[in-house]
Write a structure and sequence with these properties.
The protein is α/β, with parallel strands linked by helices. It folds into three domains: 4-118, 2-Layer Sandwich (Beta-Lactamase); 140-300, Alpha-Beta Plaits, CATH 3.30.70; 311-567, TIM Barrel (Alpha-Beta Barrel). It has 21 helices and 19 strands. It has helices at 4-19, 41-45, 49-52, 66-74, 140-156, 171-177, 180-197, 222-236, 259-275, 283-286, 290-309, 346-355, 359-375, 391-394, 397-409, 430-442, 457-464, 474-482, 486-499, 512-520, 552-567; strands at 24-28, 34-39, 81-87, 90-91, 94-95, 99-106, 112-118, 161-168, 204-208, 211-217, 245-252, 313-322, 328-337, 385-390, 417-422, 446-452, 469-472, 503-506, 525-526. An eight-stranded mixed β-barrel has the order 12-13-14-15-16-17-18-19, surrounded by five helices.
Length: 568
């Protein structure tokens, strides 16, 4: 006969086993009341074991996950178990980030359910994490997500952490100078060393070619970190390169900071770091605590939200013109700011909105303004305009749902409105993006893919995303003009698009030579300052500036000149 002492011993054995995996262990009776608790429960919930014993488990599970927890737990028998389910707990400052849960029933222990909760290496890990293939480190966006989860996890157990940013200006150049094997070994070594120095070995990222960041415990010897990486570079170069590793370390004090504010603060900090150039990156420039950066980010976010809400911006139009007939095909809608923000770089505002997750709201506002403008135009004069949709917005279900609803309320706009997907590198799933694109096309809207030709991935996009138009990136056109084989490349690209029945636009055409070049390469349309800067008044392009460039004589002369230049 099994005694109570035997049962306690058996329970202790299971608890010890569970603790090999978990940070918190909870035993539940048949009514899901907590009869035993051990681990870091007080640090997470703010309540002691004594306060919780006898209370329902739902007291410490976030309300939004009550149903999930009960559904999963009720399905557990002695023949199966809960494996790697993500839930949120009711912490002392609101719901926690996702915590990994496992569980099993023990028949000999009154058929009670044992739950293990882990705050460890897999805490908050996104299934969509992207890694840099060369170093094995997280990319910038995945690093922000992982850092946020890790910082919150450490805060729950009372630990303060730090984030160090490293600028290694010559590292990529050194790797490029080595053979493939040596370069791969160097970058893998740097990545492995940074990972091993980060908390949990999973919170280090490659922010750009030469910029890295990691979240680590307070007290990490940063000087040793710098010296070790410099030594790796010296060894790889045979002692020829003395790598200068610049570092900035900030304390991440996440107390009293919401998840959203922490994410925005991290995004703002990493974006500042990414865009810092040379002397702009100093230890003092980025060594602040998280509270001050969150405050700075909050102010910028509040300002941007006001700009969107109060419509403190307007549309400036830039024409897209046929390379052979000189006729305007459509206008791209570009944002320009007014009031105290007048003259400020739209690019900086847009990048900030993308990095802090505000771009869907802005993209939707641009569509609304374009619809209002189109509704005011004379019905006897058909004008087509294209509005931008960031790759970030394409992956935002809230934006997609609101956009589709808005378009269904304005079905008349399908004849006049087009969509241009920018920042296509930010598309997380090409298949999901294609569903969005085909939904728009089925509703009668044409879709253009921006930034085409800027990278090898462009061809993967073209094979997966069924679009009506591609816009050739300005850098791709400039490089084609300079390179000996550039003409052949652009001709081949134009032929490929024609075979796929996709129209082509070359952007940043600012002089007659560029116009002649892309026209001779078979590109159908152009956009650029050659025909004037963007204007809030489309009448500024009627008649079209430089329309004489499309006369037969001019086209013949320009073609002859281009032929001579090509031979030189």
């Amino acid at each position: 006969m099994t005694t109570e002492q035997d049962l306690k011993a058996e329970r202790d054995r299971f608890v010890a086993f569970t603790f090999c995996w978990s940070d918190i262990v909870v035993e539940l009776d048949h009514d899901y009341n907590m009869v035993f608790i051990a681990g870091a429960i007080a640090a997470v919930t703010g309540k002691s074991e004594k306060e919780l014993i006898g209370k329902p488990i739902t007291n410490i599970v976030a309300e939004e996950d009550h149903m999930l927890f009960l559904q999963v737990s009720s399905s557990v028998t002695e023949n199966n178990r809960i494996e790697s389910v993500s839930i949120k707990m009711a912490g002392r400052k609101g719901p926690t980030p996702p915590i990994e849960m496992m569980g099993y029933r023990v028949k000999d222990l009154r058929d009670h359910l044992f739950i293990g909760l882990r705050l460890g290496n897999n805490f908050g890990r996104s299934t969509k994490q992207k890694k840099d293939e060369v170093s094995g480190l997280l990319d910038d966006k995945s690093f922000i997500d992982a850092a946020q989860s890790r910082i919150k996890q450490q805060a729950m157990v009372g630990e303060t952490v730090e984030m160090t940013m490293l600028d290694m200006d010559q590292l990529q150049e050194l790797a490029n100078s080595l053979g493939n094997d040596d370069a791969g070994h160097l970058m893998n070594s740097v990545g492995a060393y940074l990972r091993s120095s980060s908390i949990g070995g999973d919170t280090a990222g490659r922010i750009s070619d030469n910029k890295y960041s990691l979240v680590h415990k307070s007290g990490l010897d940063v000087d040793k970190l710098q010296n070790q990486i410099s030594e790796m570079a010296s060894t790889a170069s045979g002692g020829k390169v003395n790598l200068d590793v610049k570092c900035a370390t900030m304390q991440v004090d996440s107390e009293n900071i919401s998840d959203e504010d922490l994410a925005n603060g991290l995004a703002y900090t990493i974006n500042q770091f990414k865009n810092a150039r040379g002397a702009d990156f100093t230890t003092g420039a980025l060594t602040q605590n998280m509270s001050s950066l969150v405050s700075e980010a909050q102010n910028k976010i509040a300002t941007f939200k006001t700009v969107v809400k109060e419509r403190e911006f307007f549309i400036a139009f830039q024409p897209i013109i046929g390379t052979r007939d000189g006729k305007i095909h459509h206008y791209e809608c570009l944002a320009r700011f007014r009031g105290e923000h007048a003259g400020k770089s739209p690019y900086e505002y847009i990048v900030f909105a993308e990095e802090t997750g505000l771009i869907p709201e802005f993209d939707l506002a641009m569509v609304q303004m374009a619809l209002q403008w189109l509704a005011q135009q004379p019905k006897n004069k058909q004008i087509h305009v294209a509005v931008n949709v960031s790759g970030y917005s394409v992956g935002d279900s809230g934006y997609v749902n609101k956009l589709i609803m808005l378009l269904r309320e304005n079905e008349w706009a399908a004849e006049s409105l087009m969509f241009e997907i920018t920042e296509s590198a930010r598309l997380e799933s090409l298949d999901e993006a294609n569903v969005f694109i085909q939904t728009l096309r089925q509703m009668g809207y044409k879709v253009c893919l921006d930034d085409f030709g800027a990278g090898a991935a462009s061809f993967q996009y073209l094979s997966t995303l069924e679009v009506d138009i591609v816009k050739l990136d300005g850098s791709a056109v400039r490089n084609a003009l300079k390179a000996p084989k550039g003409r052949s490349f652009l001709i081949a690209l134009g032929n490929l698009c024609r075979d796929l029945k996709v129209q082509t636009i070359a952007e940043q055409i600012d002089d007659p030579r560029g116009l002649t070049f892309v026209r001779d390469c078979g590109i159908g349309y152009v956009q650029g300052y050659l025909f004037g800067k963007p204007s809030p008044n489309v009448r500024d392009f009627d008649p079209l500036p430089k329309s004489e460039l499309f006369s037969k004589k001019a086209m013949s002369n320009n073609a002859a000149t281009m032929e001579v230049l090509t031979r030189i």
